[in-house]
Amino acid sequence: MKWVWMIFCVMALLIIAGCDGRQSAFTALGPVSSRITLLTWIMFIGAAFITLLICALIVISIAGPADWRHKLTSEKSIVWGGMVFPVVTLTALLIYGFLVLKAGGTLSQAENPVHISVIGEQWWWRVIYRHDDGHTTESANELRIPTGRPIEIELSTADVIHSFWIPAYAGKVDMVPGRTNILHFIADKPGTVTGQCAEYCGGAHALMSFYTVAMTPSDYDAWLAKERMDAKPALAHEGEQVFLSSGCAGCHTVRGIPADGKIGPNLTHVGSRLSLGAGILPNTKEGFAKWISQHKTVKPENLMPPFDIFSESELQALSSYLDSLE
Ligand code: HEC
Ligand SMILES: [Cu+2]
């Protein structure tokens, strides 16, 4: 019997580990997700209550006293319990559900929303910030947002269907080829959470994650101004030479040097992001070296070609160059 308990404890621990608030539908950090969480609880508690009631009725109908059993089969019980009750409950839930759905929609009339576009790509996120003067700058695999302001995200895809989901802030919204869907939400307080692609989109789908960082409005404005700038000149950094001469620039943009590839993530400020490879590796010099030399093992099937061509010193130079792009 001991091992049964051990398995039980391990399973329970695994389940509890899922409660880490960073990516949990139970940790709502804004008004839109709070409404969804409340709906979840109402449905869960209501369904549990109804299930218990049905169990009790089954027991009564099998082993209960004769007059109770008789009452259960009367026409009145069938009409009230079997028809009126489900119709009333389900209609009320439907109306409530529509109101919850509309909650994000009402934000669309809000003034001064923050405009961000996110494009799903196999298997990473292209993120485009629209500045107040209409100018745009591109980043990837990380969302930065100010607290307290309505956020308006335009969701689209470059290839197959993906689904954009930050459980802490809003419900999931699909990214469908040929369409643009709009998502609205507000972040109540500063903090870092994660989001995930929630629609199977091929090989590396499970490794298509991203960080969302909510910052105070002043921190956000400062960050956005920095993000808008070109990469600092690296003063003929050896790693920059390796980057430019190895074909990286064919797929990656680094604003400020002759690198304007559009196929992969924009790397202009890659060193200041929290992760590499869409939430897969830590953003450190070692992380860059690991990505460049082993990305096919770290993230199987991702669409960057393998690069086994570098000597150790070239790899180190390239990694420290990328790490310096803050
Ligand atoms: C054929 C196009 C292509 C070439 C050439 C290429 N990459 Fe990539 N790179 C990609 C794609 C696509 C991704 C996204 C992979 C993913 O996460 O699924 C990527 C991801 C990356 C990332 C992670 C970025 C992030 O936002 O997390 C880094 C760093 C990177 N590449 C560096 C390089 C370097 C250095 C070179 C040259 C040695 C290079 N790449 C060459 C296409 C390319
Ligand atoms: Cu996916």
UniProtKB/TrEMBL annotation:
Coiled coil: none
InterPro entries, sorted: CcO_II, CcO_II-like_C, Copper_CuA, Cupredoxin, CuRO_CcO_Caa3_II, Cyt_c-like_dom, Cyt_c-like_dom_sf, Cyt_c_oxidase_su2
Reaction(s) catalysed by this chain's protein: 4 Fe(II)-[cytochrome c] + O2 + 8 H(+)(in) = 4 Fe(III)-[cytochrome c] + 2 H2O + 4 H(+)(out)
Subcellular location: Membrane
Domain Cytochrome c: 234-326
Stated family: Belongs to the cytochrome c oxidase subunit 2 family.
Functional summary from the UniProt entry: Subunits I and II form the functional core of the enzyme complex. Electrons originating in cytochrome c are transferred via heme a and Cu(A) to the binuclear center formed by heme a3 and Cu(B).
Organism whose genome encodes this protein: Methylobacter tundripaludum (strain ATCC BAA-1195 / DSM 17260 / SV96)
Membrane topology of the entry: Multi-pass membrane protein
Transmembrane region(s): 41-66, 78-99
Cellular component terms (Gene Ontology): membrane
Domain Cytochrome oxidase subunit II copper A binding, chain residue ranges per copy: 111-226
Protein name: Cytochrome aa3 subunit 2
Superkingdom as given in the UniProt entry: Bacteria
Keywords recorded for this protein, A-Z: Copper, Electron transport, Heme, Iron, Membrane, Metal-binding, Respiratory chain, Transmembrane, Transmembrane helix, Transport
GO biological process: ATP synthesis coupled electron transport
GO molecular function terms attached to this record: copper ion binding; cytochrome-c oxidase activity; heme binding; oxidoreductase activity
